[in-house]
């Protein structure tokens, strides 16, 4: 196998800091996650089945906004991310960005009022009304929190994964993935702007749809759905996230003469170069017949 030459521009292009949230709930048949389909006109991942998320904005690192975060401070956020992320964005900004993106794309707001989760009719305007105002730009997240006396709840996010787009791709993202459980009394709805649909699915069913050609997935979504499918409920998924040591995954892309392609992860025998067919550990996502297949072996 050999790696394609992505060009100097692809290797030096700045990474876009992003945050994505795997929203969970316990369904009648087990763990479910809320997934959305990117609108066909979206600049990134058009038509793909993804988790709600997007770019971390400079405003997400506003100290005034962080002052509205009652259950997590910058030091604890840095500890959870297990890295010293220098502004912009700072460690807490990744969490705030995840909260904002989840609200914008799924209509779910991780915030409390008077110590209780925000619920429709609980002394605030409807969540849909607040989301519309945010979309229209008539208010930002800080203004929304101040106007409604809300405390954001970044502590409700469990850090789950960290993926960086391969070097050969023109637009590259540095994405932190978090888990969150649907707050009581709230409902998830896609925004109809950047996303064309949204629904609750068991992780295994989402993968089954992909294998039937009914959904399109990018590598991180496929891998994270596969990991979620191992857990019986939201509590178990959060517990696993807290216990795990998150490894940054910057896939390295290879193509074989027979047309088979693979994304190699850290820990793979060929990740740092050499023959990918040589004996050794396997940490890779292989594409066979147009479908992903995760290969993990020692």
Which characteristics define this entry?
298 residues; 9 helices; 27% helix; 27% strand
Q: Choose one word for the global shape.
A: globular
Please tell me the overall pLDDT.
Answer: 88
Question: What is the H-and-E element order?
Answer: HEEEEHHHEEHHEEEEHHHEEEEE
- What is the CATH C-level name of the largest domain? Alpha Beta
Q: Label the CATH architecture of the largest domain.
A: Alpha-Beta Complex
Number of DSSP E strands: 15
Unreliable spans are 1-11
Helix content: 25-40%
The CATH superfamily of the largest domain is known as Nucleoside Triphosphate Pyrophosphohydrolase
Number of helices: 9
Sheet with most strands: 8 strands, mixed
Please provide a brief summary of the model.
By secondary structure, this protein is α+β, with helices and mostly antiparallel strands. It has helices at 7-12, 63-66, 74-81, 91-106, 127-136, 141-147, 203-211, 219-228, 234-243, and strands spanning 16-27, 30-38, 49-50, 53-55, 111-113, 116-117, 151-152, 158-164, 173-181, 195-201, 248-249, 252-255, 261-264, 282-288, 291-297.
What does this entry look like structurally?
- This protein has 298 residues and is α+β, with helices and mostly antiparallel strands.
- The chain folds into two domains: 7-250, Nucleoside Triphosphate Pyrophosphohydrolase (Alpha-Beta Complex); 251-298, no CATH class.
- It is built from nine helices and 15 strands.
- It has helices at residues 7-12, 63-66, 74-81, 91-106, 127-136, 141-147, 203-211, 219-228, 234-243; strands spanning 16-27, 30-38, 49-50, 53-55, 111-113, 116-117, 151-152, 158-164, 173-181, 195-201, 248-249, 252-255, 261-264, 282-288, 291-297.
- The strands form three sheets. Strands 1, 2, 3, 4, 8, 9, 10 and 11 form an eight-stranded mixed β-sheet that branches. Strands 12-13-14-15 form a four-stranded antiparallel β-sheet, covered by helices on one side.
- A hairpin with a 2-residue loop joins β5 and β6 (116-117).
- α7 (203-211) packs across α8.
- It starts with 6 loop residues before the first helix and ends with a strand.
């Amino acid at each position: 196998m050999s790696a394609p030459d992505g060009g100097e521009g692809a290797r030096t292009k700045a990474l876009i800091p992003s945050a994505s949230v795997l929203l969970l709930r316990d369904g009648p048949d087990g763990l479910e996650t809320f997934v959305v389909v990117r609108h066909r006109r979206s600049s990134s991942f058009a038509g793909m089945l993804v988790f709600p998320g997007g770019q971390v904005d400079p405003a997400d690192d506003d100290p005034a906004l962080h002052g509205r975060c009652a259950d997590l401070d910058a030091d604890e956020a840095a500890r959870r991310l297990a890295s010293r992320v220098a502004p912009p964005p700072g460690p807490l900004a990744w969490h705030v960005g995840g909260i904002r993106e989840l609200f914008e794309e799924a209509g779910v707001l991780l915030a409390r009022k008077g110590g209780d989760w925000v619920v429709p009719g609980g002394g605030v305007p409807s969540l849909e009304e607040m989301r519309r105002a945010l979309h229209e730009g008539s208010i930002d997240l800080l203004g929304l929190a101040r106007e409604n006396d809300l405390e954001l709840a970044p502590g409700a996010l469990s850090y789950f994964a960290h993926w960086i787009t391969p070097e050969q791709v023109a637009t590259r993202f540095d994405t932190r993935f978090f888990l969150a459980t649907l707050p009581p009394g709230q409902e998830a709805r896609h925004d109809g702007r950047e996303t064309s649909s949204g629904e609750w699915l068991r992780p295994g069913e989402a993968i089954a749809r992909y294998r039937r050609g009914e959904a399109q997935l990018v590598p991180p979504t496929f891998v994270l759905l596969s990991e979620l499918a191992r857990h019986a409920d939201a509590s178990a998924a959060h517990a696993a996230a807290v216990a795990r040591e998150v490894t940054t995954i910057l896939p390295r892309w290879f193509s074989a003469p027979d047309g088979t392609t693979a994304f190699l992860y850290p820990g793979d025998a060929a990740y740092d170069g050499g023959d990918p067919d040589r004996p050794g550990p396997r940490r890779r996502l292989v594409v066979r017949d147009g479908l992903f297949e995760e290969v993990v072996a020692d």
